[in-house]
Structures are given as structure tokens and as C-alpha cells.
Amino acid sequence: MGKPHARLCAGAVRYGHGHLMLSGEKKMSLIQVEFLTDDEDMQELCLLYWQVDDEGRFVHNVSDFASRFGLKSRKVASVVRQHCRAFRTDLMCEMCGKPVKYLDNRSDVSIGWRHKEWYRFCAECKEESGRQEEERRRRQAEELREQKSRKMEEAFENGVYESLNLLEFNLLVALATSKNTTIARKKVGLSEEDAGAIIDELNDLHLINFKVGIQGYALVEELGIALQEIRLQRRVKSIFGSPKAQDLYRKLKREHLFVYPEIPICAFIDRGQVEHLFTEDWHSMYFLTARVDFVVCDPEGKPKFAVEYRGGYHKSGDQGKKDEFKQVVLNEVGLPLRQITSKDLRDFEGI
After folding, report:
1. For the chain, which has fewer Cβ within 10 Å, the N-terminal or C-terminal residue?
2. What is d(CA 333, CA 269) in angstroms, rounded to the nearest whole number?
């Protein structure tokens, strides 16, 4: 039987259960054939079945050559599949370079003709790509959780919750002692809309991590404990504004004998000495209500200098203006104000 007018590239390749067979391949304009047999008749059958012209059209009708090989037309495709693998040369995996899909029969040739982007990867690479994407999303989610956790810890350490108004603070306490936001808002007597607005604000301040769309939220553990203690001790509370302020007090006491916390500035500054500084309506009332975190005094009770712990709430616009005015008042009477940050507190070596 005559051989097809095509050059066969033969090579030794192992298939199946270790049987050594010959494989050949013939490049055409669209379809490439890999032989799984050394039977030359079957190689010819495969080439005749898959041969296409430059336009991508099949050159032979199956009925034209089926009888030559003692086959019925309907059996040709299954016999061809047993003796070769065919694939489209324009549909190769972008990751591994292998065929995206081996063709079962001629009708498979049209798959992806107009939508090649659907067939960019083979099945194995699609699965691997899916695993990589899932791992990427998992790492990204973990990084976001860690980032949010760090911000929540910083918000707690900086005392951001101290700057909340009473309603916001009460809802924060309720969140720390409730199973979901519905129970928390009902404890405070808030509508769903009003509670939602405050929860969004608490989330933006990193005091809670609210998962949008579900009744779930998380607080940094230390803040939750602190808020629960506040709930249990509502009638009286610590004179220290935050755990950091309390830590600063302990360290100041190691260095100085007379340290007094939460002292109103009007208690040690005569109004007449600074009244000329009251250039805005709120200055007068603020002078009567403003306090400094700590005043270090001599044995006679005269202030030597003031100390304040600068938590995150000092960065807010209104509080910033008040802090600036307090600084002006203390400067006027020649009393130094030493401001301590969270970093200073960690590296505290005395004042």
C-alpha cells in the first residue's frame, strides 16, 4: 500500500504500560498528528483522516478511504483515536506549551475557532492556575487580616477609643459584650441605621473589624477586656485615661516623688495671668475644664513641669486645636509640657 506524501518524523516514545512504540508527527496548517503506533497502514489512515488544506478544510471525506482499510465509515474515528493523537497547533497551553486539548474527532476542530481565549490553558495547568489563584487570595486575605489586626492594636495602644463621644463609647462597650450587632444596638437603644453609621466609624478608626454584610465583628483582645471591665465598673472608673497613661504614671513615680494625675490647669494657673490669651469663645470654658495628664511638683506642691501621653485621639482636628491652646497657656506661665508617645513609653529612660 502506498505511503502518504508526507515526511514522518519518527522517535522512540514510551506509551501505555511500558510498551515501546514508534511515534511520528506531521505538521499541517492547523492540525498536528502524533502517532502512537509503528503500523504504517494505521499511520496513513490517521494522516488521511486529519489532513487539512491551507484553509483548514479537510482534504478527504471519510467515506472515500474507509473501505481501503477494511473499515466502515462510522468506525474510522475510533480507530484513528487508538493509533494517534491530534491537536490544533493554534491552541497550545500558554503555561506549559502542550496541546490544550487532544481532538476526539473532526467536529472537535471547530472548538475555540472564534473564542480562542477560552482555551488558553490545558486542563492540568488550569487546575494548577486555580490552586495558585486560590493560594494568592488566601495570602492576600491573611495579609489584610494581619494588617487590620496591627491597626486595631495601634488604635488600642494610642487610646483612640478615649476620643469617642458617650453614645459611640457605649456602643463600643456593647459590641464587646454582645454576640452580634443587633443585640449591641438594642442595649444602647439605637436604630439599625444609626448603629450602622457608628459601626462604620468604629471600623474606620480600627477599633473593630466589621465584616460587611454579616452580623460579625472582632475587637483586639486587650480592648475587649478593657471594655468589659469598664462595663462591670460603671459607677467608678480609673482616673487614668488609658492603660498606657497608667504605665506612664508608674514610670514617672520611679523618677519623681510628687506626681499628680489628671490635674485641672485652673488649679495651678491663675486665670488673670492668661486671660489675655482668650481670643476665641471656647477658650474661657476650656481653661476651666482642661486637664493635664500629670503634674510633677516640688515638695511644696508647686508644679515643676507637666507631662501628657499623646495617644491617637490627640491627632484629631478639634483635639489638636485644644492641645495647641493648652501649650500656649502653659508656655505663658513658664511651665514646660513634656509630651510622651507610645514609642517614648517603650524606650522610657526617665524624664
Report:
1. N
2. 8
38: how many CB neighbours lie within 10 A of its CB? 15
- Residue 245 DSSP SS3: helix
* Residues with Cβ within 8 Å of residue 339, at least 6 apart in sequence: 307, 308, 309, 310
- In a 3-state reduction of DSSP, which class is residue 19? strand
Q: What are the pLDDT digits (tens) for 96-128?
A: 888 888 888 888 876 655 555 566 788 888 888
19-27 and 9-15 beta bridge pairing: antiparallel
* CATH no. of 133-232: 1.10.10
Write the single-letter amino acid at 73: S
- Grid coordinates standing for 311? 495617644
Q: What are the pLDDT digits (tens) for 212-226?
A: 444 577 877 778 777
pLDDT band at 204 (very low <50, low <70, confident <90, very high): confident
SS3 91: coil
List beta partners, residue 209: 218
Show me where the domains of the chain are located. 9-121, 133-232, 243-346
Question: What single DSSP character describes residue 122?
Answer: -
Looking at the whole model, is its pTM more than 0.90?
Answer: no
The conformation of residue 4, written as its DSSP 8-state character, comes to P
Q: Which residue has the higher pLDDT, 28 or 342?
A: 342
Q: What is the pLDDT of residues 259-292, one digit of tens each?
A: 999 999 999 999 999 999 999 999 999 999 899 9
The pLDDT of residue 74 is 92
Q: Which value, to the nearest 10 degrees, does the dihedral of the CA atoms of residues 193, 198, 204, 206 take?
A: -130
Q: Please give the C-alpha separations between residue 164 and each of 13, 207, 221, 248, in angstroms, as whole numbers.
A: 75, 11, 19, 22
- H or E element, residue 103: none
DSSP strands (E only) in the chain: 9-15, 19-27, 31-35, 84-88, 209-211, 216-218, 259-264, 291-297, 303-309, 337-340
Question: What is the DSSP annotation of 318-348?
Answer: HHHHHHHHHHHHHHHTT--EEEE-HHHHHT-
